[in-house]
Amino acid sequence: MERKLPDPKSPFLPAEHEVELVKEQLVLRAMQDLLNHEIKHLQAAPKIRMTNLYVRQLDTFMDRIIKAQYINRRTIKEAGIKVLDIERVKSGGGGLKTCYLKRGYEYEFRMLGDYLRAECEVYLSTMLRIDLNDDRRLKEEIERMEEREESL
Length: 152
Prior knowledge:
Blueprint: H1 16-44, H2 51-78, E1 81-88, E2 95-102, E3 105-112, H3 113-128, H4 136-151
Antiparallel strand pairs: 1-2, 2-3
């Protein structure tokens, strides 16, 4: 017996842009946690020189993330979505999950740890204006690996 998928225009399914808003909120929350963690480690590291400059730069990024969170929350509210809670998932590779309400229905959204990490990298690289496709170190590492494989 063939399983029938629900109609994508069904009122019971959230719209794609609504899911993207919730996803962005999870990514921003993860970025905020990551930057808080990095700032604490930098401040505790005794051997790093110019720690204050690094911390100030991370604080600048944190301010930008907080502004993005504010805009995201406002947009979510205007869309009629109510995010109930965001919690860490420890099993199954980690990540974040949230429950949210839309049109009287409760939905759950999860992001696995690896996917969340990749989304955070993309978001941070965009903020830093770094092209991830033009990573010379990655290309050099790939070339070294290929040379090792050829020598075997």
